[in-house]
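Reminder to self: keep the SMILES exactly as supplied, no canonicalising. Ligand is zinc ion.
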Amino acid sequence: MPIAPWVEWLDLIFPRACALCSQPLIAPQLRSLCKDCFERIHPIEDGCLRCGAPLERKSLHETKPSRRKRPACPHCQKRRYEMTRVFAYTTYANDAIRIARKMKEPHSESMARQVGKAMAEWLIHATAFAPEHYDALIPIPQHWFRRLTLRYNQSEVLASSIASTVGSRVEDAWLQRTRWTQKQGMKTIAERVVNMKDAFRIAQKHKDRIEGRRFLLVDDVMTSGATLDQAAAVLKRQGAVMVDAVVFARGLGGSRPAPSKSSIPTGQ
Ligand SMILES: [Zn+2]
Ligand SMILES: [Zn+2]
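Structure tokens returned for the bound complex:
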């Protein structure tokens, strides 16, 4: 989208700053995080093929070269996900937590767009992702009241940024939120599953578009996977043949009670 001249003039008068470290931004129309801050976010180099968690170097060594047959990692050994696989860009380590939190603040579209572009480039260059594997990208929907207060859905912006970079399509009206759900941050894994039960449905007028199709869910964060799993289950009940997911940050507290609110962004 071309940048309006008045926006460029405003940037000259009031230079915009990085949302994390406050240093002035070069080309602020295109980004809201500076290069230094973004480079401190380390993409996961070789994550678990099921749940996206980073694997120990030792287990990587043991399982090569047959990566396809790699056993489940410690984070998903005892879990059966509805999703076939999860692509996780990074973990909650370092500044990724701060970025995930900032993206949950109102008017953080430009940050989400920048993060989405980085996720898309990582998907293409560092993972087995191929856009032709999916019929559409589906962002995790928000409850209408959260939308009203936040003014945007970070998952929708991430999905549209990824889609425009990899050449996929986004369907953001097919999946709907049925009810308000409590924040997941302080809940145990069992409580998270109960909290998200029946939280999604397929929009009535799109019900006949799901059968036989393959989807990539998009969300900002994943800890237990309860949110994404519920969304995937709804799509599969309607006939989807495959549902994968991509997230910006992967929390690793899924097998135990979630860490305190102060150290982890709350999943939806
Ligand atoms: Zn910065
Ligand atoms: Zn795993």
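Points to follow up:
The two ends are 30 Å apart (CA to CA).
Confidence is low (pLDDT under 50) at residues 59-67, 254-268.
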